[in-house]
Amino acid sequence: MNGPVSDPASGPIRDLPGSAPAWAGELIAREAFCLDTRRWDDWLGLFAQDAVFWVPSWLDDERIGDDPDTQVSLIYCTSREALADRVWRVRSGLSVASTPLPRTTHVLGPPLVLAQDGNTLTVRSAFSCDVWSVRARRQHRFFGHVEHRLTGNAEGHVIAAKTVVLANDRIPTMLDFYCV
Predict the structure, then answer these.
(1) What is the pTM of this model?
(2) Predicted confidence (pLDDT) at residue 4 exceeds the cutoff of 80
(3) Is residue 13 domain-resident?
């Protein structure tokens, strides 16, 4: 199967390409595991060197941003190096909002294939992340959906792009990569 999948919300299930390959679900689950267990180097290793990590902001109550170059984004990183910089700030203790580091638990829905083109697979899944602020002694839940563009070759599969759409974009104190 190559190209976009017909509308994933309609049509008989047999007309869809099927569930995402096992490796896709494993890769997404591994990412959540690495975030929740603070295995930052392993988390970074799941991303391609030129990976894009984007959390767009809502333009109004109905429209989500669609251009990170001209609109405000909650998070926008255009390489694994930029993600590594965010990890460095968390590890260094220089991020006041992340000291002490909140505890997180990610819950993921099954990935739905949106498109496949050669070795590239685009999947969408629902997520929630419970965040416990140790300092404030408060809990907050971020939730929404995430679209992963996954790519692979003989050496394995990596995340080429991750776009997170927060359904609840009221951020109580902070938002960083480990919350989504």
Answers:
(1) 0.87
(2) no
(3) no
